[in-house]
Design a protein that fits this description.
By secondary structure, this protein is of the alpha/beta class. Helices cover about 40% and strands about 20% of the residues. It has two domains: about 180 residues, P-loop containing nucleotide triphosphate hydrolases (Rossmann fold, 3-Layer(aba) Sandwich), CATH 3.40.50; about 25 residues, no CATH class. It has a six-stranded mixed β-sheet with strand order 6-7-8-3-9-10, sandwiched between helices. A four-stranded antiparallel β-sheet has the order 2-1-4-5, with helices on one face. The radius of gyration is 20 Å and the shape is globular.
């Protein structure tokens, strides 16, 4: 399994603190997969992402992009941030202009693209996120869910190879969450590697192809969703919940479960139960 982003034995402490935010962190984000990086607030997920785009620099250790150590010169970082896009948890930290169109076109304009190309790509990115109706709407009139989609459009318009999202569904209602996940799946289907930091185990279980679990600045578990969550005691010892769907499935009699692949969505569970009229 090829890795697109790796960190090796990375240590980092924020200025003015003695506690390490990252304590010899080593992990790899596999290329082409949907990766969920799980862990409590304070486990180091956001700090990892800030290292990935070069905002923070390790005190010790290495960050690698496609096998090569990243550089920290201005030109190196500009090139890196064209390849890696980061969407912050709070879109207010990322949206700086008056309307979605202005904000999405900002990065393209900074890159010095012709105005016609800027307009084409900005309109295309807004349309892909279902934001045409709100393209000229003042930003302060948009809901949180719409603002998150604008922030995502602003990153995707630069055509990154790796998309990082920090708690992308935080504070969203269920409908907005489903819309955002649908957009992420579409982006992934276009060939972009997607990794999200989340403490929502239900989302991680249903969405991800690969799971990384962080705790106190280290990666302590990794694997396929079924493999990771099968280590129930370990998950609980980290103070994390098991996915509800996982628990429901394993509460069923073994005679029902033994020949079936554990479902990871409610639709999959319903389909399996429909095949078991005796149970119903």
């Amino acid at each position: 399994m090829d890795s697109i982003l790796e960190v090796e034995k990375v240590h980092y402490s924020y200025p003015g603190t003695k506690n390490e935010a990252l304590r010899g962190l080593s992990l790899a984000v596999p290329q082409g997969r949907r990766t969920a990086i799980c862990g409590h607030n304070g486990s180091g997920k956001s700090t990892l992402f800030l290292h990935a785009i070069g905002i923070h620099r390790p005190v010790a250790g290495h960050v690698r992009w496609k096998g090569a150590n990243i550089g920290y010169s201005g030109s190196d970082l500009r090139e890196l941030r064209r390849k890696i896009g980061l969407v912050f948890q709070d879109p207010e930290q990322q949206l700086i202009l008056n309307t979605p169109y202005e904000d999405v076109s900002y990065g393209l304009r900074n890159a010095g693209l012709p105005e016609e190309e800027i307009r084409r790509r900005a309109e295309q990115s807004l349309a892909a996120m279902g934001l045409q109706t709100w393209a000229q709407t003042p930003m302060h009139q948009l809901s949180l869910g719409l603002k998150k989609r604008v922030a995502l459009a602003g990153v995707l318009v630069l055509e990154p190879e790796l998309l990082l999202l920090d708690e992308p569904t935080a504070y969203l209602d269920r409908q907005s969450e489903l819309q955002l996940i649908e957009q992420l799946n579409r982006v992934h289907a276009q060939g972009i590697t997607v990794a999200m930091a989340t403490h929502d185990m239900n989302l991680a279980y249903s969405w991800a192809d690969w799971i990384l679990v962080m705790d106190r600045g280290q990666c302590v578990m990794e694997g396929l969703p079924g493999e990771v969550f099968a280590q129930e005691q370990r998950i609980r010892s980290l103070g994390l919940d098991l996915p509800i769907l996982y628990e429901v499935w394993h509460a069923l009699p073994y005679s029902i479960r033994r020949d079936s692949v554990p479902p990871r969505t409610m639709d999959s569970l319903r389909s399996l139960l429909k095949e078991l009229p005796a149970l119903i």
